[in-house]
Each structure stands twice: as structure tokens, then as C-alpha cells.
Amino acid sequence: MSPAVSLSFSHLPLCKTQDFSKDTLLPRRTFRENPCQKTPLDVKLTKRNLLSSTALGLIGGGLSMAQPAKSAEPESPSESTSSRMSYSRFLQYLNEGAVRKVDLFENGTVAIAELYNPALERIQRVKVQLPGLPQELLRKMEEKNVDFDVHPMDFNWGLALLDFLTNFGFPLLLLGSLFLRSSSTNTPGGPNLPFGLGRSKAKFEMEPNTGVTFDDVAGVDEAKQDFQEIVQFLKTPEKFAAVGAKIPKGVLLVGPPGTGKTLLAKAIAGEAGVPFFSLSGSEFIEMFVGVGASRVRDLFNKAKANSPCLVFIDEIDAVGRQRGTGIGGGNDEREQTLNQLLTEMDGFSGNSGVIVIAATNRPEILDSALLRPGRFDRQVSVGLPDIRGREQILKVHSNNKKLDKDVSLSVIAMRTPGFSGADLANLMNEAAILAGRRGKDKITLKEIDDSIDRIVAGMEGTKMTDGKSKILVAYHEIGHAVCATLTPGHDPVQKVTLIPRGQARGLTWFLPGEDPELISKQQLFARIVGGLGGRAAEEVIFGEPEITTGAAGDLQQITQIAKQMVTRFGMSEIGPWALTDPVVQSSDVVLRMLARNNMSEKLAEDIDSSVRNITESAYEIAKNHIRHNREAIDKLVEVLVEKETLTGDEFRAILSEFTDISVEKIDRTPNREMISV
After folding, report:
1. Which of 106, 335, 447, 477 is catalytic?
2. Is-above-0.85 flag for pTM?
3. Which of 130, 325, 520, 654 lies 20 to 30 angstroms, CA to CA, from 118?
4. Span 387-457: which CATH code?
């Protein structure tokens, strides 16, 4: 019995019934289309069938750029068929001398063979998949006198072009688009990076319409004056040129957040009427080295083309940080950007007609080369407003709001020391929101007062129910108020409340007076006594075992004040020394980590001892105030528990019934204080 044969469906239908009981080379299943009709496929293998049989495709191993040529039509008998045959079976027929002709295609990997099948008694045409073209097969066909021929590959230009576009078209398209984008965004001496990476992201306004003028800026009169000079320089440069003055190249705005640095830049843009560029310092920096420097060049090229003009860079510390600092020695991209900025501001060519305005709240970390005259000729300090400045700012932000006739902006300004312009704007907006929520058509003092409490202390919490905790908190807050009132140099009480806000269960507010430039040792010590009044009341009234964790925040505040008195202000027995390195006090975390502690152990012990002496003496004074005014404290607690809030006048009226106090003799200090439990 002959070995098994692996065959596929025949491409050549048969016209006669075949006997499948014999061991034939035909497949076990035959697809019959029309058994009685002869087709050209009966006598030759066409290119279409050959492509189908070799399974050429566009997916998987890629496109084939060639196809077999049409074989010469062999001399075939009247009856022939075509099917697949295994290579081993083909060798068997070759050894028996039954193979007559072989046509080789596909570089010798496919063979179409004519062989005589004795079982069918006719010549059969089969397709054989060859393992390459071994020399042994060629030698054996020569020995058997087999007529074989090798057919070359026909090159199909259509398939070749399709294959080329598939494999190389997309990369070429991508490279071409990068080239076109880079060439279209390229300016003389400017960026040459794809997708506009080197282009500046600055917002440009040929005729600035910021909607802000100097009338909208209040509380920073000195800064306004400097900027008004620059506006006059831009509008009438001949007046200054007549006396030999040159326009400043740069103005650096320095101040805490929310003080109006960006607002001043908008005002000068609205007043000057010259082209205005605005961007943030972080917009220069990218992950690719060289992009930031390219953006700086592009920015100044555009600015010079539109000079005279203004360039505003907000948060310049993002790019202007001191070079060579930080872990690892610095950042190459940021330092290259800074170097390019230094060159553009005052390099060999200069930047005539371009005024750079920059803003930062961290001037101590800026590079010294950036701060020198010739780059930033002026440094304008925009600090927190004083009481008069706060009143002016409140007038600006209350123009579009309806205020009750009892609302006094001067009183609000007095109650908000330390507030920046942004804080005051937020205060008036919160008050308007509360008035609308409560269904009022005007903003009253109640909304102003609640808004201040919310901004400083947080949202109002759930009121406490009567019980031991409420009584303890009441004694704690009254202890703060009594100790502060009876200590010379402390601010007067503004109100005492048991309404929780944020993390505090109760609050004692103090009303500061005018903002002084200097604070005395007596005032600082009075704040420590007032801060310890709550803990002193707990210990004296309830006993030491009953003291609570409510004084944690108070202890942090008074410890910080005492340390500053010893180490910074020289207000201790150690003497007038500055005992702390300014680098250690810096806000920069890296500088504090790298700073060396040059303090000796003996000096550290003396500092700790001095801080302890200050706090202990203040604590004894606070406990004496509580012991000597127990009757007044009990009365105040009784009223506070009932009403939950005592105003400053109500508090002083009750306290004056038991103790001789004079409000006129109480010193008024500048800062807003809030003591909580």
C-alpha cells in the first residue's frame, strides 16, 4: 500500500467517474463545478491558479514583488489532471522513472510535474512544494532524463510600488511633515525645531485691552509711581532723552503672593498702549534640552520687531534660579534658558526698545547676574498693604457691591491686618455670596464678620451641645481673653465665640490697631501670656490631670515667638546676637538641607534655657491672672455658654465689674491674632 499523500482540492474538475477504492494520487474530496465541461485549466496551469496555490498575500510576511511566469504549455495527453503531491511521494515517482517533465517556479521552491500514474493509466499533472533546489534533486532528474526547466520571476511594478509605499511611505511622510513644519516656523536667527517646539508661547497683544488701569490698583502707591514713570517714558521718550536718560531695560516686582504684581503688569499694559507680550517662566522649560533657549530667542526676536514694547514674565524664579545649585549641580535645560535670557536682556547686541517686567515672590533664589543693573534696573517691592492701603483696596472691590449703611470700610481694614489685595477681594466676594444665600439685598456687618472668620479660621462647624466639653472650651477661651486684657501691650479683645470653625472648637479674636513698623519686647511677651491663658485656665480651674490637647496650637505659636525673641531679636539674657544662620531660615528646602550647623552645644543649651525661661515666666503670670479673677471668669463663662458669642464691648463691660481695667491704656499692636482651642 502506498504511503499517505497530503493533497488539497483539485483545481481541475474531472469528467469521468473515478474509482476511489484504488490507491490513487487524487484527493479524497473533489470540488465539482461542472463535470462535463472542459476548461483551459485541464491542459495548463494559469498564473491565477499558481498565485492562488502559492497563497500570495498582503498580510503576514509582507508583500511579494514578483510572481512566476506562465509556464510553457507542455505536450499533454488527452487526459490529465492537476493536484498537490508531497515531496516524498514525488521522489518515489522520480526514482521509478514515472516523471516526464518538471517546470520550476518561485526560485526553485515550487515545481509543476508531469508524471505517469500507472493506477490511473494516464499522465497526471501535480504541484510539489520543494525545500529549495537541492543538488541531489537536479542530479537525480538528469539521471532519469527528466525534461526540466526553470522559469524566471516576472517583476510586477504595481506590487513593487505598493510594497514600497507600505514599508517606506509613512516614515517618509512623517519626515516630510517635520521638515515642512520646521521650515514654515523658522525665522531668521530663531528656532529651528519641529512642530514649533522652539516657538515662544507668549500671548501677544498689539493693542492691549486688559481692562485694568492704574485707577484699579490700590494700596501700592510707591510701585504705581515707578510704573507711571515707565508709561511716560514710552509715551514721551524725547522728554527724558533731552536730559540723557535711558529707558529702563527691566523692572522686577518682588512681594508676597496676592499683593498685586500681575495686576500692576496689566495696568501698565493698559496705560502704555504699546505691544504687550505676557507669559510665565515655566513656559520656557521643556524636557528637551535647547527648547527653552530657542523660545527665549524667538520671544525677543518678535519683541524687537514690535519695539517699543513690554514683555511680562510671571514667576520668573522658574527659569531664573541661581545656577549650579540643587542636587546634582543644576539643570542643563534651565541653565541654558537662563543664559540665553541674560544674553538677550543685556548681551552684545542688546534689546533696544524692549522693557522686561518680571514678577516673583522668591527673590532670594534668583541668579545674581539676572538682578544686576543693566538687566533689571529697578526692583519694586510690592508688600502687604497697610491699614490705609487696605481701605483703598476695599473701595476698589466694593464699587460693584451693595453695602449696608452701617458697613464701614475703615473698620474692615482695621480688622484685616496681614490681608493681601487678593485676600480682600476674596473677602468682599464671600460676603456677597453669604448675603445672597441669606436672601438679603445688601451686604451687612454680619456677612463681613462671618466672611473674615471663614477666611481666617475655616467653615463654621456644628455647634456644641451643653456639657463638660462646652464648659471646658468656654473657660479656655475666657482664659485667653482675660490674660490678654490684663497684660500690658496686648491687643483688645474683638470677640469670643464657642462656634467651631475649621479644627478649632472655640475662638478668641483680637482687634489690632495701626500697623507699626516695629514691635516691642513688651508686646511680644504679652502675646505669649495671652496665648498661654487657655492652658492656665484649664490647669487652675480643673486641675492638672484635666488639661486637654486643646492648647496644642497655642503652644506652637508661643514657642515660635519665644525662639525668635532669643535667636533673631536678641531679647534675652544671652545678649544681642543673631544666633541663627539666614540660610537655615530660608524657605528653600535644598539650602536648609545643605546648610551646616555651626552652633556649639553650649550655645544651643543656652538658647533652649532662655526660651524656657520666657515661656515659664509668662505661664506663671497667666496662672496668677486666672487665680485672682476667678469670680469674673465664672461670670463671663456663664454668659458665654448662654449666648455662645461675646463681643469685645460686652466682654470688657462684664470684666470691668470685677476688675479695674482701662481700654485707653491698652497698647494696640499690628498683627491679627486668633487664639483657638
Report:
1. 477
2. no
3. 130
4. 1.10.8.60
